[in-house]
C-alpha cells in the first residue's frame, strides 16, 4: 500500500510539473522584425509542437522542467535550433534568417496573375485545400469558389465529376500543372477521375475567370485552372490521412518527405487509395494514385523530377436518371451488366528547371510526357452486326442480323513536349517582362474490340471493329509585360501566337472512314491596366481567345463541312482590396462569342448529333466576393454572381417520326439562354472558432435555374437549388505528434433533392391530332444528407 501511495504521489507530482510549465515565444523575420505566421515550433525532447498565430506568437504548454531543445522552421527561412530552461516566465523571441534559395513559385509564375495583373482571379492555398479535402474530386473541392457549379455522376463527389465556371464547361477551361498542359488534346476536357486525391499534392491553385493571361495548351475560353504541386519542406515529415463516410467511402493516404538533405536535396512521396459505392446504384469507384517528387535546390537553380499516376475503375452511371424516376427512385441506374465499367490509367512525368541568370533574369524550362491507356466495357443487347462491319450469320434457314455483344472501346495515347519562359525585371523594378511558350505533340489511338458475342459468326475475340489514329501538334509563343508608368499605375500587355496541326485517319466507331487534316494559326492579344490606391487595386482589360473545334466536331461532321473555330472577346473590370479584417473583390465581365459551337439537334449522315456554329452569343455579369473577420472567433465570407447568358439567334432541329420518311423540323429562337448557365450562383461560409483548436464552418450554396438546352424552355431545365453543409475541424499537438487533425463534413444537411447536371432530347411521334412532341429529360441526382470523417496524423 505504501508503494502504491508513493507511486501515485510521484505521478501526481509529475503531472503537476507538466501542467505548470509552458513556453511562450514569438517568431519574427530577422531583418524586417515582422511576425512569421504559421511557423512550425517543435520541442525536441518533449514531443510537443505548436504553430505561430497571426502575431507570430506560439505557446508550448504542459512542458517538463529542465532543459528543453526547440526547433523552429518556416518555408524560405533557415531552420533554427535553440534551448531554454524551465520553468521560465520570459517571452522568447526567435529570429529566423531568410534562406538564399530560389523559390519554386517561379515555376508557375509565367502563367499566373499577380496582384497588379488586370484580370479576375482567385488563389486557393494549401491550407484551404487541406481543410476541404476528404477524398472528393477537385471539382467538388472548388464548389464554393466564385461562379463555380460542380456535379458528380455517381452523386457523392467521387468518380466522374465535373465543373462549370461562369457556365463554361470543362472543355473550355484551360488546366495546367506546373505550367504543363493537362487538357486532353482532342476533346479539350479534363477527366478528374484519372487523378484521384491529386489535391493532396497541390501546393496552391489559381483560378482565372475569363480569358486571363496567356498559358499553355487548350484555349482559355471561360476560365483557367493553374496548379502548382507540392514545394520543398525543410524538415523531414510523415503524414497518415485516413477517412471514411457514407456510401462505404474510404480514403487512405500516406505522405512522407526527407526534408532538405545536405542543404541541397529533397524527396517527397504520396500513396493514395479511395473507394466508394456511390449514391447511385452500382456506381462504385475504385481509385488509386501515387506522387513522387525529387529536387535539387541550389542558390541560383532548382531542378525537379516529378512523377505521378492515377488508376481508376468506375461503374458507369453516364446514362443518368429518367425524369419518370426522379420522385421515387433517385438512385436508379440504367446499367445492370456486372462489368459495365470504365478502366483507365494515366502516368505523368515532368522534368523542371528554373534558375537565375545574372541580376535581372529568371528562366524556367520543363520537359513532360504523359501516357494514358484504358477502355470502357459495355454490354449491348441485340445489336446489329452491321454496326460492327460484320455480315449476318446464317444458321440453318435463319438469317441472324443481330445478337448480344460485349465490347470495349479503347484509348491509347502519348502526349509529350516542352514549355518554358524567361522573366526579366529591370533594375528599378518598373518593367516585368516574360517571354514564354511551348511545343507539344499528342499521338492517340482509338479502337474498339468485340470480346464476346452470343452468336459469334466469323469473328474472333478482340476483333477490332474500328481503328483510327490522330496526331496533334500544338505550339505557342507569348510575350507579356507589366510596366509601372508612375507609382501605383501599371500598364499590361500580352501577345500570344498559337499554331495547331491536327491529322486523323482510319475507321470510326460508326464504320465511316475518317481521314482529314486541319491547321490553324491564332493570334490572341490582351491589354489592360491596374491602379493601386491605398489598399485598393482597380483594373480593366480586354482579351481575345481563339479555339479550334474538338475531335467530335471533326469526326462527326462531314470533312467538307468542318465547323469554324470559335472566337471570344473578353472585357474584365473590377476592384480588389485588403483592409484590416476585410477583403473583397468586385468585378464586371463581358464575354462576346463569335461562332460558338453548340448542339442544335442537327444530325449527320449516320444519325449522330453534331455541333454547329452560332454567329453571336455572350455572357455578361457581376461577381462579388469577400470575407470579414467580425472578431477573432467569427468570420463571414461569401460570393455571388449575377449574369445574363444569351444566344442572339439559333436554329433547333427536332427528329420527326410522325411521317413515313424520317425528317427533321427546324425551329428558330432569338435572344435565348445558353444551356447550363444559371443567372445567379452564390455561396456563403460562416466560420466560428470557439478556441484556437476548434473550427465550425457553415457552408451554403445557391444555384439558379439551368436550362438543359438552348431553347429557354422550363420543361427542359434543372430547378434552382440551395444546399447547406457543416464542417467541424479540430487540431491538436499531442505528445509524439507534430499535429493531429480531425475533420467531419456533413454534406447537404437539410437533405435537399437536387440535380446540377443532365441532358434532354425531343422528337415527334404520331398522335391523335397528327403528331405529338415527346421530350425526354435525364438527370444526375446528388446525394441527400451524407458525411465524411477524416483523421490526419503528422509526424
Automatic annotation (TrEMBL):
Residue span, TonB-dependent receptor plug domain: 115-222
Localization, UniProt: Cell outer membrane
Keyword presence, Plastid: no
TonB-dependent receptor-like beta-barrel domain mapped to chain residues: 328-749
Cleavable signal peptide: 1-19
Pfam families the record matches: CarbopepD_reg_2, Plug, TonB_dep_Rec_b-barrel
Family membership: Belongs to the TonB-dependent receptor family.
Protein name: TonB-dependent receptor
Natural source organism: Algoriphagus confluentis
Amino acid at each position: 500500500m505504501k508503494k502504491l501511495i508513493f507511486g501515485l504521489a510521484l505521478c501526481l507530482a509529475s503531472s503537476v510539473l507538466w501542467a505548470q510549465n509552458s513556453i511562450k515565444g514569438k517568431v519574427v523575420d530577422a531583418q524586417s522584425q515582422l511576425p512569421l505566421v504559421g511557423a512550425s515550433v517543435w520541442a525536441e525532447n518533449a514531443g510537443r509542437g505548436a504553430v505561430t498565430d497571426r502575431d507570430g506568437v506560439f505557446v508550448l504548454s504542459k512542458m517538463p522542467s529542465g532543459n528543453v531543445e526547440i526547433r523552429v522552421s518556416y518555408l524560405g527561412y533557415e531552420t533554427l535550433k535553440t534551448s531554454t530552461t524551465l520553468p521560465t516566465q520570459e517571452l522568447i523571441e526567435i529570429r529566423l534568417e531568410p534562406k538564399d534559395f530560389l523559390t519554386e513559385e517561379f515555376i508557375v509564375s509565367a502563367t499566373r496573375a499577380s496582384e497588379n495583373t488586370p484580370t479576375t482571379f482567385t488563389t486557393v492555398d494549401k491550407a484551404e485545400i487541406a481543410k476541404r479535402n476528404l477524398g472528393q474530386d477537385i471539382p467538388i473541392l472548388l464548389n464554393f469558389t466564385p461562379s463555380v457549379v460542380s456535379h458528380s455522376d455517381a452523386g457523392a463527389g467521387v468518380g466522374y465529376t465535373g465543373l462549370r465556371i461562369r457556365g463554361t464547361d470543362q472543355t473550355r477551361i484551360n488546366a495546367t500543372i506546373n505550367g504543363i498542359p493537362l487538357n486532353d488534346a482532342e476533346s479539350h476536357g479534363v477527366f478528374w477521375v484519372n487523378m484521384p486525391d491529386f489535391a493532396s499534392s497541390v501546393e496552391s491553385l489559381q483560378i482565372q475567370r475569363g480569358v486571363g493571361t496567356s498559358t499553355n495548351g487548350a484555349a482559355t475560353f471561360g476560365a483557367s485552372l493553374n496548379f502548382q504541386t507540392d514545394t520543398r519542406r525543410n524538415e523531414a515529415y510523415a503524414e497518415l490521412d485516413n477517412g471514411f463516410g457514407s456510401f462505404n467511402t474510404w480514403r487512405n493516404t500516406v505522405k512522407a518527405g526527407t526534408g532538405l538533405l545536405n542543404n541541397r536535396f529533397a524527396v517527397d512521396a504520396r500513396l493514395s487509395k479511395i473507394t466508394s459505392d456511390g449514391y447511385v446504384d452500382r456506381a462504385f469507384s475504385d481509385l488509386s494514385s501515387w506522387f513522387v517528387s525529387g529536387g535539387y535546390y541550389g542558390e541560383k537553380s532548382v531542378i525537379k523530377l516529378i512523377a505521378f499516376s492515377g488508376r481508376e475503375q468506375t461503374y458507369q452511371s453516364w446514362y443518368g436518371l429518367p425524369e419518370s424516376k426522379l420522385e421515387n427512385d433517385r438512385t436508379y441506374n440504367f446499367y445492370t451488366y456486372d462489368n459495365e465499367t470504365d478502366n483507365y490509367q494515366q502516368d505523368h512525368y515532368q522534368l523542371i528547371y528554373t534558375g537565375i541568370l545574372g541580376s535581372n533574369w529568371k528562366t524556367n524550362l520543363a520537359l513532360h510526357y504523359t501516357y494514358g491507356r484504358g477502355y470502357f466495357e459495355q454490354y449491348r443487347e441485340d445489336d446489329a452486326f452491321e454496326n460492327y462491319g460484320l455480315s449476318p450469320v446464317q444458321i440453318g434457314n435463319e438469317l441472324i442480323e443481330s445478337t448480344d455483344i460485349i465490347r470495349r472501346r479503347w484509348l491509347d495515347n502519348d502526349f509529350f513536349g516542352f514549355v518554358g519562359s524567361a522573366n526579366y525585371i529591370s533594375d528599378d523594378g518598373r518593367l516585368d517582362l516574360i517571354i514564354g511558350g511551348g511545343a507539344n505533340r499528342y499521338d492517340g489511338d482509338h479502337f474498339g474490340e468485340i470480346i464476346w458475342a452470343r452468336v459469334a459468326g466469323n469473328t474472333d475475340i478482340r476483333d477490332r471493329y474500328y481503328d483510327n489514329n490522330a496526331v496533334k501538334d500544338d505550339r505557342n509563343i507569348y510575350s507579356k509585360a507589366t510596366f509601372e508608368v508612375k507609382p501605383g499605375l501599371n500598364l499590361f500587355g500580352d501577345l500570344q501566337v498559337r499554331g495547331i496541326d491536327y491529322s486523323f485517319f482510319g475507321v470510326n466507331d460508326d464504320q465511316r472512314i475518317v481521314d482529314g487534316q486541319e491547321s490553324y494559326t491564332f493570334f490572341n492579344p490582351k491589354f489592360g491596366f491596374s491602379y493601386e490606391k491605398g489598399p485598393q487595386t482597380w483594373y480593366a482589360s480586354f482579351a481575345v481567345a481563339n479555339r479550334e473545334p474538338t475531335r467530335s466536331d471533326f469526326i462527326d461532321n462531314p470533312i467538307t463541312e468542318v465547323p469554324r473555330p470559335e472566337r471570344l472577346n473578353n472585357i474584365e473590370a473590377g476592384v480588389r482590396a485588403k483592409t484590416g479584417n476585410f477583403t473583397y473583390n468586385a468585378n464586371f465581365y463581358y464575354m462576346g462569342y463569335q461562332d460558338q459551337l453548340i448542339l442544335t439537334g442537327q444530325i449527320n449522315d449516320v444519325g449522330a448529333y453534331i455541333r454547329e456554329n452560332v454567329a453571336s452569343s455572350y455572357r455578361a455579369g457581376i461577381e462579388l466576393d469577400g470575407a470579414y473577420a467580425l472578431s477573432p472567433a467569427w468570420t463571414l465570407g461569401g460570393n455571388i454572381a449575377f449574369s445574363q447568358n444569351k444566344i442572339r439567334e439559333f436554329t433547333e432541329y427536332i427528329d420527326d417520326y410522325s411521317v413515313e420518311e424520317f425528317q427533321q423540323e427546324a425551329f428558330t429562337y432569338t435572344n435565348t439562354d445558353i444551356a447550363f448557365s444559371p443567372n445567379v450562383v452564390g455561396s456563403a461560409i460562416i466560420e466560428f472558432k470557439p478556441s484556437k483548436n476548434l473550427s465550425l464552418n457553415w457552408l451554403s450554396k445557391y444555384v439558379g435555374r439551368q436550362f438543359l438546352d438552348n431553347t429557354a424552355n422550363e420543361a427542359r431545365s434543372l430547378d434552382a437549388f440551395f444546399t447547406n453543409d457543416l464542417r467541424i475541424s479540430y487540431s491538436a499537438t499531442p505528445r509524439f505528434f507534430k499535429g493531429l487533425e480531425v475533420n467531419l463534413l456533413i454534406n447537404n444537411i437539410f437533405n435537399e433533392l437536387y440535380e446540377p447536371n443532365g441532358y434532354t432530347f425531343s422528337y415527334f411521334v404520331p398522335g391523335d391530332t397528327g403528331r405529338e412532341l415527346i421530350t425526354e429529360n435525364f438527370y444526375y441526382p446528388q446525394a441527400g444528407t451524407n458525411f465524411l470523417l477524416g483523421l490526419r496524423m503528422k509526424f
